[in-house]
Amino acid sequence: MNEGGCQLTDNEKNNNVVDESVEIIEPETSEETTTDAPEVSEEETQEVSELDKLKQENEELDDKILRLQAEMANMRRINTRERSEAAKFRSQNLASSLLEVIDNLERALQTETPSEDGQALKKGVEMVHNQFKNAFEKEKIDTIDPLNEEFDPNFHQAVSVMPAGEGQESNHVIQVLQKGYRIDNRVIRPAMVIVSE
To answer: Among 90, 125, 145, 162, which is most buried by a count of CB atoms within 10 Å?
Structure first.
């Protein structure tokens, strides 16, 4: 019978039986398994991220080491070059100071001395001049004496320009007023010259 006092049909009886016998079974989930699984995966991801971080730091350190090694090699190369340049041109300042002395000695040698005393003095000046020349040669200081050479503004300073005479080419040195000097193509003092037009 149903609630209203009526008799139930067979179908209705079967439906009631099915409804009563069906019990929903939910899958059992253990809190321990659900919480353990994320912890393991978090630990693994932390280890992986730490490993990646360490690899990246290692690469950065390797890069820094390579850069520092290259910088050290460059510094050594620059230092070697500077020492070589300093050794090559160490006498430049001294030579610059002595150029006027040599010029004066050369002027003294150009003067005429008729007396024997004057000749003896001239011979002494010539000896001193030769000592200076030898010292300059030892230090690889070369004279720039460009008479009849083509004018080169890198080594010559034109004081005046004159018309070219017979047999003279234009833009050539026709007179040297003051010799120049150089150390290994580095000019200490350019030669003062008169140039032909």
So the answer is: 125
The pTM (predicted TM-score) of the whole model is: 0.56
The contacts of residue 12 (CB under 8 Å, 6+ apart) are 2
Please state, as a whole number, how many other Cβ atoms lie within 10 Å of the Cβ of residue 33: 9
User: In whole angstroms, what is the distance from residue 49 CA to residue 57 CA?
Assistant: 12
Q: Is the dihedral of CA 174, 175, 181, 186 positive or negative?
A: negative
Which residues of the chain fall short of a pLDDT of 50? Answer: 17-19, 22, 30-38
For residue 91, which of 145, 155, 138, 144 has the smallest C-alpha distance?
138
Q: How many CB atoms lie within 10 A of CB 98?
A: 17
Q: What is the C-alpha separation between 164 and 170, in angstroms, rounded?
A: 6
Tens digits of per-residue pLDDT, 164-173?
A: 888 888 899 9
For 44, 66, 172, the CA distances from 39, given in Å and listed in that order, are 8, 40, 93
Tokens of 7: 């008799």
Residue 84 is predicted with a pLDDT of 84
CA distance 152 to 195: 10
- Give dist(CA 127, CA 123) in Å, integer: 6
